[in-house]
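Researcher: We're teaching a course module on how sequence relates to structure. For the next exercise, students receive a sequence and then see the predicted structure as tokens, so they can try to spot secondary structure elements on their own. Here is the exercise chain.
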Amino acid sequence: MITGTTSNGNVSAVITDKFRTAAAEQNLQLQNVAYTLDVRKVNLTKIGAATVTLTIPPLWVEQHGGKNSVKIARISEETGIPELLNTRYMGRDPKGNLIFRGDSPDGTSIFGMLTAKATVEKMHEHAERAVQPQKCPYGVEPVENSDTVCLDRHERAVEHDMVGK
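Model: And here is the predicted structure for the students to work with:
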């Protein structure tokens, strides 16, 4: 059996520090932790990879750095080592909340929905790279602040339908 407990807004200093460490390892600075989800296995031997899907109100995301700053973090149930998961924006749920998905190769743990921004070192990492605007194919609209992504505006397109240039 797998059990889960959610903690909103009152995240312990120990967990926050572990999330801060995970962010720093990727040259990111932790901004805010929205909530945690403690997922534990009960009476199970080792389980494999897990896909974690979390939702958050759009207002919280806007107030804390936008969709690109949202990350899902994990603290290993077995080792206590924190890491940021590969996090993807998936769209909106029926209530309008934003959906994010993270791949957890090592299964259950404490997961956190947080925002982080690039450190000064990370922002300057590719400062010498010149970005030239490119045209999107006909019928496809460029995404603001992006040099590699366009949104496909066909009649059934949703927020996350993208095509590469």
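Model: If you want an answer key for the exercise: The chain is about 15% helix and 45% strand. The helical segments are 13-24, 58-63, 120-124.
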